[in-house]
Every structure is written in structure tokens, then in C-alpha cells.
Amino acid sequence: MKNFAFYNPVKILFGKGQIANIAAEIPADAKILITYGGGSIKANGVYDQVKSALAGRNVFEFGGIEPNPHLETLLKAVELIRKEGIDFLLAVGGGSVVDGTKFIAAAVFFEGDPWDILAKNAPVTAALPFGAVLTLPATGSEMNDGSVVTKWETKDKLFFASSQVFPRFSVLDPETTYSLPPRQIGNGIVDAYTHVMEQYLTYPANAPLQDRMAESILKTLIEEGPKTLANPQDYDARANLVWSATMALNGLIGAGVPQDWTTHMIGHELTALHGLDHAQTLAVVLPSTLTIRRDRKWQKLLQYAERVWGIVDGDQEQRVNDAIAKTRNFFESVGVRTRLSDYGVGLDSIPAIIKNLEKHGMTALGEYEDVNPQVVEQILALCA
Ligand code: NZQ
Ligand code: ZN
Predict the structure, then answer these.
(1) According to the UniProt entry, where is the signal peptide (predicted)?
(2) Do residue 207 and residue 265 come from a single domain?
(3) Contact 245, 191 (CB under 8 A)
(4) Closest Cα to atom 43, ligand 1: which residue?
(5) Which ipTM score applies to this complex?
(6) 6 within a domain of the structure (yes/no)
(7) Is residue 60 in a domain?
């Protein structure tokens, strides 16, 4: 196992009715800014629950944060915060709202152009405290220190991480997710699944505990994910999906093991250039990454085949092929298509994707840092 530091200070309030308890988590004299997206929280009653939990408090609002949150929008919230002297943020929505709020929290105290936090890896030394009410199980943002923001003007979708932007608390009430359309449920399943795969499907590192935790999350997603699609009001299935998605990217399974974020990095460029949902990009790229990188990942692919999919028959080649095919079929079965052509994207877009990866310094990806632009080209060619 590799050396690691593990730190995660996020308090989780899990279960039905937990929104009612948020007031106790926020200082009584705080000037609070509720941040949210395009309005789903108003349609499903989550906004009303938050407002009644914060009755009598000093509350401001900032709505309109887009999926794949835009820098340009988030900077307007920063202006409002400075003008009103707001000192606590409450993100209410999906990963985009939580990510956007992390950026806002950091940008408020940043001297200079806050985009440098992402474009130049400028360190974040302070941030406003914030909490989250999560309404879409997918990203893990509710319990991690990462954030992905898009500069719309230039179509740059970039990532930053800082221990300053862990939420103080996150509410995970599975009932708030009942209103999700099937597309977003499927997206959440695929995103969480891929987060596990990028921390697990590399090479053996003598970390059997992390391996088994990763495999148990994958198996839980395979079992519970389809139940949530078949019966959107199945509380227990939804609760298990929500907790699986959080556990998939809160740092625990990735501690002490090699990681491969190739699929995500290619995926971010696909979203920025072609507007695919985050999880759609992952469903397209992951099967191809596993196929092109099969030699490097051979041992773990065999382990994955056996322990996650129960594939024990056939020679090694056959088992590896079957495991990759099962992965693709699972994504398709939860409604997320796995080919570029399903989204109207042709292979002629490959040079632009590679150019953007180069611009963003993503030229040595993967657990061996040997996924260079030529390898990315092979991966994308297989995504057609
Ligand atoms: O904007 P509203 O009206 O709220 O609607 C949203 C949005 O249209 C809707 N929605 C959310 N909760 C709902 C709901 N609709 C009905 N009922 C509910 N309960 O769903 C749509 C998508 O929301 P979004 O927040 O964009 O989705 P998601 O949670 O999948 O977040 C995706 C973003 O997270 C980033 C992605 O790149 C992308 O920008 N990621 C963040 C990560 C992190 N911070 O660690 C890691 C991930 O790999 C990912 O990159
Ligand atoms: Zn993701």
C-alpha cells in the first residue's frame, strides 16, 4: 500500500426529514446565501423545506447555477456576497450547485482573478464556510474537496481541489431525489460507478481492504441502481444509491492505491466541446479506456470480472472481454448510451479534444502516467 494522508471533516445528516435539522449546523447570526440551480428545488418542495428550516434567519438567495456550472454565473454570486456581507453559504441541488458553491466560497477571498484557482492551480488559502443539501446522488461533491467549473467563454472545463472547500455538513435525504428524471438517475449511477472504477481498476497494490470496499460499492450500484429506476419511490433502494455515490468519491477507497482518471479527463473535454452530460461522457469513454489499456490493467480486470460479475469460466482473454462487455451493458441498461454516435459526435472531433487536453496539460494520464495524446486517440477512435 502507498503512504497516504486521509482527512474528511464533512458531517453527514442522512435520511428522511433531515433538512429540518440544518439550522443547528449554521451559526445563529450568520448571513446565509442559499445557492441553487434552474428551479428543480422549487418544483419538488426542497426549497420550501429549506426555507422553513431557516425561518427567522437572515437569508439571501442566488439561483440559476447551470449544470456544469459556469464561471461567469458564479462570479455574480461573489459580487452579491461582497455587497451584502454574506458569511455562510448553503448549496441546495446537484453536484453542479455544490461544485459552484465551492468555487464561490473560495473566490470570495481570492486576490486576483479567481479563474487562476483552476487555470493556474493557484492555492486556495481561505474560503467561506458552507453546507449542502444534495438532491442528486452522483458526484460525491457533498463529501469531498473537489470542484469542476466551466469557463463558458472559452469552453474550458477544469478541476480544483482544496481542503478549504469541504462542506461543513451535507444533508442526504433520499426523498429529495424522488423527483429526478430517469436520465439523471442513470447518470448518477454511471458517475458513481466510474468514480469507483478510476480508483480501483489499475494494478494490484496490496490493498485488499480498499479493493473489497470498491467492489462492494460496484455490486451495490449494480443491485440497487436498477431498483431505483424501476420504482422511483423505493426508499431503501434510493437510500443505498445515495450512500453508494457518496462513498464512491469521499477519499476512502482511493487512499493508498494508484488511480487512473483518464476517463474523467477525456470526458470533461467532451462535455466542454459537445455538451454531453458528465455521465454520458463516462459511459462512452470508460469501456474504451479499459479495452485499450487492458494489458496494463490485466490483473485487476480479471479480479473485477470474478468478484464483481462472477465471471469464472473461459480463458483469461474471454473473461476480460466479458467483464468489459458487462460494464458497457450495465451502463446501457440504466439508460446511458455508450457510443459517441449516440450523441451525434463524429470521429472528426478527436483532434479538437486532444488539442484541449494538451492545452490543459493532460498529456500523461493514467496510473502509469503513460496515457499520452496518441493513446487518447486510440481510446477515442474506439468510442465511435
Ligand atoms: O438545475 P436544477 O433545476 O436543480 O436541475 C438539475 C439539473 O438540470 C437536475 N436536478 C438535480 N436534482 C434534482 C434535479 N431534477 C429533479 N429532481 C431533483 N432532485 O439535474 C440536472 C443535473 O444536475 P447537475 O448538478 O448538473 O448533475 P450532477 O450532480 O451529475 O453534477 C454534474 C457536475 O459535477 C461535476 C461534473 O463534471 C458536472 O459539472 N463533477 C464533480 C465532481 C466532484 N466535485 O467531485 C466529480 C465528478 O466526477 C464530476 O466531474
Ligand atoms: Zn464523475
Answers:
(1) none
(2) yes
(3) yes
(4) 141
(5) 0.99
(6) no
(7) yes
